[in-house]
């Protein structure tokens, strides 16, 4: 079976976040995979389906919802649990493709944000290569960090300074990264900024970025941390799911001289 898989970045889920290139790739697909992550996150699948119905001509492609496997395993075997989980997801993809396109064809999958940034879709796709004749096209999308900095109207970096991108898990385990001035945090479902010494730290936080119900909070971490935690929980309760990200910046001890 020969399969061409298009992984299309969908930003934060607003139709305008999908590029024209992404729309074209979606319209070339014969089959669109739509992951379902349980009843408590049904809105995520519904959002993908609504995007497809808005962007695709009627009958242009088969929309194929499938149930996402649940990751098994605890913190002690995190990498092993993720590896087994990815294998299970690849098998579900393959089963769904074989059911709807037994002779193969063009398949698309909408990916939150951009497929290249802290997302495992590309790694899962690689597992199909040993099972089918696979080619993959990646259509870049708006990343969570782009949407965050745009929402707050701030630059990602200070002048001539690096930015470290990490996860909530790493921030909880290791604390503030050594020598970092700016830290961008993704995949944090537990508000890991609460584990940091807030002195001298400023946070820019955002959820549902680019969506009508976008939430943005910024300020000294010591002053806004509790507000962010409260807003996160309330938003999750309202919508059944939440995707958020944030930028942390430590105040510089020196003053930079700006060119005129």
Automatic annotation (TrEMBL):
GO terms for biological process: cobalamin biosynthetic process; methylation. Signal peptide: none annotated. Keywords: Cobalamin biosynthesis, Methyltransferase, S-adenosyl-L-methionine, Transferase. One of its GO terms (molecular function) is precorrin-6A synthase (deacetylating) activity. Pathway: Cofactor biosynthesis; adenosylcobalamin biosynthesis. Residues 5-224 form the Tetrapyrrole methylase domain. InterPro entries: 4pyrrol_Mease (IPR000878), 4pyrrol_Methylase_sf (IPR035996), 4pyrrole_Mease_sub1 (IPR014777), 4pyrrole_Mease_sub2 (IPR014776), CobF (IPR012797). Pfam families: TP_methylase. The keyword Protein biosynthesis does not apply. This is Precorrin 6A synthase. It comes from Hylemonella gracilis ATCC 19624.
